[in-house]
Amino acid sequence: MSTAAHAASHTAATRAGQAQPHTLAQVAPFKPVARPDALLTLSGVHTHIGAYHILHGVDLVVPRGQLTMLLGRNGAGKTTTLRTIMGLWQASQGRVVFNGQDITRLHTPHIAHLNIAYVPENMGIFSDLTVKENMLLAARHARRASQMDQARLEWIFQLFPAVEQFWNHPAGKLSGGQKQMLAVSRAIVEPRDLLIIDEPSKGLAPVMVNNMIGAFQQLKASGVTILLVEQNINFAKRLGDSVAVMDDGRVVHAGAMAELAQDEALQRKLLGLAL
Predict the structure, then answer these.
(1) Tens digit of pLDDT for each residue in 204-251?
(2) Out of 28, 88, 195, 246, which residue is the most buried by the measure of CB atoms under 10 Å away?
(3) Which pLDDT tens digit goes with each residue over 17-40?
(4) pLDDT of 175-192, one tens digit each?
(5) What phi-psi label fits residue 238: left (phi over 0), alpha (psi between -120 and 50 degrees) or beta?
């Protein structure tokens, strides 16, 4: 989503909230409990995009070694939160701390060098390059395909067989699901401390969603920490360890994903789901 479109979407959501006197954020302000196992912590983060005030004091904890789901209605501020973590948009207030280091004012390349991988909603692949060339660009310690970690590549091929099948094909010729698999494969071509992924199941056929869930289950088992934005609640239920729900630029609920998955009334309240 473009900056202008995202800001306009969020403004529309805010105006809709003004028509209904109380947003979730107004009714139920949320403050997270500090956790000693936190890999990533956002404290009171505000973000402005031009004249638009998008994030209104985000407090978020991502525990080490877990898959954290970031949920919320369209326009709640989820993508802005991810982009703020990565330094693509600068926080105007608050702190972002990764692995004990304040990264709030760091530029995106410096943040990426801390071993954080980000898969944006638009996937960020290079359509004119082959699948192999896309993977090689993401492998920081290899200048040729032969220098890539072959054992890790074999593991990726098991997770996403299409990556191997279309290795020498232009990435732009792949289907939407295959492009998503390539985008995630690029992010994990080398071991990462944190994966940040924006809506990996968006637009995918059910069989592709199941394949993606299976891949993330294996990624979880490998011990990597994952922060994942999703609109698909079933995807979230099957994968999430912990969950944070956003509304109107704030986190209004956080806890165990299993607890939210079992509470349909809370899902309706937080996400507006017709269950």
Answers:
(1) 888 888 889 999 999 999 999 999 999 888 899 999 999 999 999 999
(2) 246
(3) 443 434 454 444 455 555 678 999
(4) 988 999 999 999 999 999
(5) alpha
